[in-house]
Design goal:
Blueprint (H helix, E strand, L loop, with lengths): L3 E2 L2 H23 L4 E7 L3 H16 L3 E7 L5 H13 L5 E4 L9 H7 L11 H9 L7 H14 L6 E5 L6 H10 L3 E5 L6 H5 L4 E4 L17 E4 L3 E3 L2 E3 L4 H5 L4 E2 L6 H21 L9
Parallel strand pairs: 1-11, 2-3, 2-4, 5-6, 5-7, 7-8, 8-11
Antiparallel strand pairs: 9-10
The site of 5,10-Methenyltetrahydrofolate (GUE) has 16 residues, from strand 4 and helix 10.
């Protein structure tokens, strides 16, 4: 291993501390704490773990956590009316509906019903459009966390070659939009790309978010590349990323581990987006760039 390990866990802890420092000022200005509502439908064990740690970290930052756990057989209308109630609730600044939703639920319709100004996940098409056009809105937490790690490591990203492996609405597409906005030359590759090594050979930045364990091999990388591994694959050997870590670590300049890399950033950015949502909704100023 020659690559530096990018410590997302430590960076996320620092980010959460900076967020927590801003909460008292917001409280003084408004008489209340920022509030995040998290909706979980069903009892997928991984989702339950994530929701629990979101609630815990929300409270530790001094914010209010509203958790709504609904049974797996909840119908569409019931879920939509909960979303509507949260849209109207002045104590709720951010709404997160945990994905994946059960198969009988139309997830696209649920996401469309969330007030875009409370959409701290950045999944509403209005926020996707704002990101694509450079308007202020909410950016999905995982790609924004990846960008923070990249800028912390590399400084100005302008002119760098970036390859995003994966094209989901949640990670790949917004990641490509963010890197484009930072003046990278961006290639979006995915599981069907012919000759992925050809594209990776020149990449200064690689963001792997295809959802396939060990998909990206070290031999394909440009020596010294910065590699961000978004994958969370549960295998019999435990949690592994989308990058073949051992081969990549001998070629890359820096790489995020799994766990301890991107994962903790996702929740820290969720808290950041909630803090931002609260300030925007109340018209209280916040230097967003300083957080
Ligand atoms: N509406 C919605 N928004 C989400 O942001 C969302 C979601 N649905 N559904 C599920 C995914 C997954 N996700 C993670 C959050 C934290 C870690 C995390 O903290 N991971 C740690 C620990 C991993 C572990 O031990 O399980 C790590 O990588 O070090 C991972 C993954 C948010 N998601």
């Amino acid at each position: 291993m020659s690559a530096a390990s990018i410590d997302g866990k430590a960076f996320a802890a620092g980010l959460r501390a900076r967020i927590a420092e801003r909460v008292p000022t917001f409280r003084k200005a408004t008489g209340r704490a920022p509030g995040l509502a998290v909706v979980l439908v069903g009892e997928d064990p991984a989702s339950a773990v994530y929701v629990r740690s979101k609630g815990k970290q929300t409270r530790e930052a001094g914010m209010e956590s509203f958790e709504h756990k609904l049974p797996a057989d909840t119908d569409q209308a019931t879920l939509l009316s909960l979303v509507e109630q949260l849209n109207m609730d002045p104590a709720v600044d951010g709404i997160l509906v945990q994905l994946p939703l059960p198969a009988h639920i139309d997830a696209d319709e649920v996401l469309l019903r969330i007030d875009p100004d409370k959409d701290v996940d950045g999944f509403h098409p209005v926020n996707a459009g704002r990101l694509a056009t450079g308007l202020p809105g909410f950016v999905p937490c995982t790609p924004l966390g990846c960008l923070m790690l990249l800028e912390d490591r590399l400084g100005d990203l302008s002119g760098l070659d970036a390859v995003v492996v994966g094209r989901s609405n949640i990670v790949g597409k917004p990641m490509a939009a963010l890197l484009t906005a930072k003046s990278c030359t961006v290639t979006v590759a995915h599981s069907r790309t012919h000759n992925l090594p050809h594209y990776l050979r020149h990449a200064d930045i690689v963001v792997a978010a295809v959802g396939r364990p060990h998909f990206v091999k070290g031999e394909w990388l440009k020596p010294g590349a910065t590699v961000i591994d978004v994958g969370i694959n549960r295998t019999e050997n435990g949690l592994t990323g989308d990058v073949d870590f051992d081969s990549a670590a001998s070629v890359a300049g820096a790489i995020t581990p799994v766990p301890g890399g991107v994962g903790p950033m996702t929740i820290a950015v969720l808290l950041r987006n909630t803090l931002v949502a609260a300030h925007r909704r109340e018209g209280v100023a916040l230097e967003e760039g300083d957080i």
